[in-house]
Amino acid sequence: MASILELAGVALAALLSENFVLVSCMGIGTRTEAFRDPMDAVRTGYCLTAVMVLGALCAWLIDFFLLGRFGWQHYRLLVLALLIPGLVAGLRKFLKVCIPELSRRIDGQLKSVATNCAALGSALLISQRSYSLPAALIFALCGGIGATVALASFAGLQNEVDLESCPRSFRGIPIQLITAGLMAMALVGYYGLHLD
C-alpha cells in the first residue's frame, strides 16, 4: 500500500511538474472555445477530470486483472485507446437517460474529451508506471484538476490580454503560443520535485 507521502508526491507531480496541458502538451486538442471562455474551460476541465478518473480506475483494473495476469501487455495501447472513447460514450448515454439537463449542458465538452489525449495519456502513464490503485486515482484526479486550472487560466489570460497593444505580427495564435510557453516555463521550476 502506498504511503501518504508517496501519494502526496504523485499528486504534486500531476498538478505541477507533469501538468498535462502545459508540460506534457496533452489535452491541447480540446474544444477551441475552452481557450477563449473561462466557463467553457472549467466545464471542459471537469468533464476531462471525470473521464480521467473513470479511465484510471478501468485501466488499472484491466491492466492488473486481465493484461498483467495473462501476459497481454503488448495489447495495452489498443485496449486503452478503445477504453476511453467507450467510457465517454457510456457516460454520455448514462447522463442523457438519468440527468438530461446536465447532459444538455456538457454534451459538447464530453464529445471533445472522447478524443482528448490527456485522458488516454493518463491511463497509459498509470499502466506504464505500475501505480497502485490509490496512486492511480490520485494521479488522474490531480492531473485533471491541473489541466482544468491550466485551461481556465489560459482562457482568463486571453480575456485580459490587450491585443491592440501588441505588434500586429504577434496577434492571434503567436501571442497565444507565447502565453502558453510562459505559463509552461513557470512550472519548469517544479520539475523533479519529489517528496522523500
TrEMBL record:
GO cellular component: endomembrane system; plasma membrane
Topology relative to the membrane: Multi-pass membrane protein
Listed transmembrane segments: 6-29, 41-62, 74-95, 135-155, 175-193
Subcellular location: Endomembrane system
Keywords: Membrane, Translocase, Transmembrane, Transmembrane helix, Transport
Annotated Pfam families: Rnf-Nqr
Main location as per UniProt: membrane
Name of the protein: Uncharacterized protein
Organism annotation: Flintibacter hominis
